[in-house]
Write a structure and sequence with these properties.
This protein is α/β, with parallel strands linked by helices and about 450 residues long. The chain is about 45% helix and about 20% strand. The strands form two sheets. A seven-stranded mixed beta sheet has the order 8-7-6-9-10-12-11. The termini are far apart.
Length: about 450
C-alpha cells in the first residue's frame, strides 16, 4: 500500500482542498507541504522567482519526507506542484530510490477553471499589492500546468478536479492507495459507462429532436409548472431539452462520470434548472420522500430501460405522478449493427469476430422488448399511448466508429494503439463511400396515470 500520496497539479487545481479531505479521513496521516521548505530557504538567501530551481530545495524536500516517514507518519500527504518534468523525476525518483512507495496523483482542470480559481483566492487583506503579484505569478503558470497533464509518467492517477467534488476525488485516491474501494451505488451493476466512455457517449450518441419533446409534452400536458425525473439520464441527451419544457428536471444515473459530463453540458448550454443525482431506478421511493406524492409531471427513461426492472420502476413511479402525468419510455434508434442494410450486417459480422461473441441485444428497440414494456405499463395500471419520430442521418467513419465505442463499456474499449486498425476495418466495410445513412426510429411508449390509480392513493 503506498504510504506517500503526492498530489500534483497546477495552481487552482485543488491540491490543498484534496489534502484536507484526505486528512479528514486519515487523521493519523501527516500533511507535509514542501512550500514550507522553500520559505525556510528564502530566510537565509535572496528569494528568487521560484524556489524549485534551488537544488537545495529539491534535496531537502526528499530528505524531509523520508525523515517524516521514518519518525512520524505511516502515511504522508504531500500537496505540491511539480510541473517541470525534470524536478518531478528527481524528487519522486529520490523517494522511490529510498524504498518509499509513492502514489502520484495529478489533478487536471481546464485553463479557464484554474484561472477562475486563482482569481478568486483570498490573500492577505493588509497587503493587496503582494496578493496581486502572487495572483499574476500563478496565472502566468496556468498554461504550463494544463500542458503538463499530458506528460505524466505511467502509473500516475489522473483525476479531473473540475469534474469531481473533493469527496469524489478522495474516494478515487483512497481506492488507488488501498485504503478502501470506490463506493458502489445500491442496486447498480457495473455497466462500464465511465471514464472515456462518458465522453464518447456524449459526443456520438444521438440527441432527441424537438418532435420527440413535442410528443412527450403533448401526451402529458407538461407546462412550466411541472417537475420531471429522467432515470438513467446518461450525459443528459434527454434531460437537457426536457429542461426547456418544464420548471425543473432531476437527472438520475449510477455513473459519476456520466453525471459529470452532463453537468458540463448543462453549464455550457446555460441550463440551470437541472439537478443531478447519483442513483438508480430503485431510488424513486427516495425521490418520492423528498418531493411528495403527486409532485412530478413525467418520469422519462431514454434508451436505458433494458438495464432496469421495468415492473418495479413503473410501480414505484405511480405515487410520484400528478393527475395526467406519467412515464415516457423512449428508445432512440436501433443499434448500429442491427439495421437491415448491407453495411450494418457487415459491421455486425466484424464486431462478433472482434469481440468473439454473438450480438443479439436490441437495447430495448426490438418488437419483443417493446411488447413487454407496453404490457408492463398496462399491468401497472397506466393508460398506454404510443408515438414515433423517424428521420435519416448520414454518419462519417469517425461517427460510426465512435458510436460503436460508446456502447462497448470501458472494459472492452480497445487501447489507443489498436484503434487505427479498428477504424481501418470499419472503413473497408463502408467503402467506397465514407458515409453511411442511418435510419433512426424513435419509439415513445407513454404510460399515463388513470383515475383509478389516483383514487388508490393513501
Amino acid at each position: 500500500m503506498p504510504v506517500i500520496i503526492w498530489i500534483n497539479g497546477g495552481f487552482g487545481a485543488g491540491k490543498t482542498t484534496l489534502a484536507e479531505e484526505l486528512h479528514r479521513r486519515l487523521p493519523d496521516a501527516v500533511v507535509y507541504n514542501p512550500e514550507d521548505v522553500g520559505l525556510m530557504l528564502w530566510k537565509w538567501m535572496r528569494p528568487n522567482d521560484d524556489f524549485q530551481h534551488l537544488p537545495s530545495w529539491r534535496e531537502l524536500v526528499v530528505a524531509t519526507a523520508l525523515s517524516l516517514r521514518r519518525h512520524h507518519a505511516e502515511t504522508l500527504i504531500v500537496p505540491m506542484s511539480l510541473i517541470r518534468d525534470a524536478y518531478r523525476a528527481e524528487i519522486l525518483g529520490g523517494l522511490a530510490h529510498a524504498g518509499e512507495e509513492v502514489l502520484h496523483v495529478f489533478l487536471e482542470a481546464d485553463a479557464g477553471v484554474l484561472q477562475e480559481r486563482v482569481n478568486a483566492r483570498v490573500g492577505i487583506p493588509a497587503n493587496p499589492g503582494a496578493n496581486q503579484s502572487a495572483r499574476e505569478w500563478a496565472l502566468s503558470r496556468v498554461d504550463a500546468a494544463v500542458a503538463a497533464a499530458t506528460r505524466q509518467p505511467t502509473g500516475t492517477l489522473l483525476l479531473r478536479s473540475d469534474r469531481l467534488t473533493p469527496a469524489e476525488l478522495a474516494d478515487e485516491v483512497l481506492a488507488a492507495a488501498g485504503h478502501g474501494a470506490r463506493p458502489q451505488i445500491r442496486g447498480a451493476s457495473d455497466l462500464g459507462f465511465r471514464g472515456e466512455i462518458a465522453d464518447l457517449y456524449h459526443r456520438y450518441r444521438h440527441g432527441y429532436s424537438p418532435a420527440v419533446l413535442d410528443a412527450i409534452t403533448g401526451i402529458f400536458g407538461l407546462t412550466n409548472d411541472d417537475l420531471a425525473v429522467d432515470v438513467g439520464c446518461g450525459t443528459g441527451q434527454l434531460t437537457l431539452p426536457m429542461a426547456a419544457r418544464v420548471r425543473a428536471v432531476i437527472g438520475v444515473d449510477p455513473e459519476r462520470d456520466m453525471l459529470q459530463r452532463a453537468r458540463d453540458a448543462a453549464r455550457d448550454a446555460g441550463v440551470a434548472n437541472v439537478t443531478w443525482m447519483l442513483g438508480v431506478d430503485i431510488d424513486l421511493p427516495t425521490i418520492r420522500a423528498l418531493l411528495g406524492d403527486g409532485s412530478v409531471g413525467v418520469v422519462t427513461v431514454g434508451q436505458a430501460l433494458h438495464w432496469m426492472d421495468q415492473r418495479t420502476l413503473f410501480a414505484n413511479a405511480a405515487p410520484l405522478l400528478r393527475p395526467g402525468g406519467g412515464i415516457a419510455v423512449v428508445t432512440n434508434g436501433t443499434p448500429l449493427w442491427l439495421h437491415d442494410t448491407d453495411w450494418s450486417r457487415a459491421l455486425r459480422q466484424f464486431l462478433e469476430q472482434w469481440l468473439n461473441t454473438e450480438i443479439k441485444s436490441g437495447c430495448g428497440t426490438d418488437d419483443e422488448s417493446q411488447r413487454r414494456y407496453r404490457e408492463a405499463l398496462a399491468a401497472a395500471g397506466y393508460e398506454v399511448h404510443s408515438a414515433a419520430v423517424d428521420y435519416d442521418v448520414e454518419l462519417t467513419l469517425d461517427e460510426l466508429v465512435g458510436g460503436v465505442y460508446s456502447a462497448l463499456g470501458v472494459g472492452r474499449l480497445p487501447p489507443p494503439s489498436e484503434r487505427p486498425a479498428v477504424a481501418e476495418q470499419v472503413r473497408r466495410i463502408i467503402a467506397p463511400r465514407n458515409l453511411v445513412t442511418e435510419h433512426v426510429h424513435v419509439a415513445i411508449l407513454a404510460g399515463r396515470m388513470r383515475s383509478d390509480q389516483l383514487s388508490g392513493r393513501s
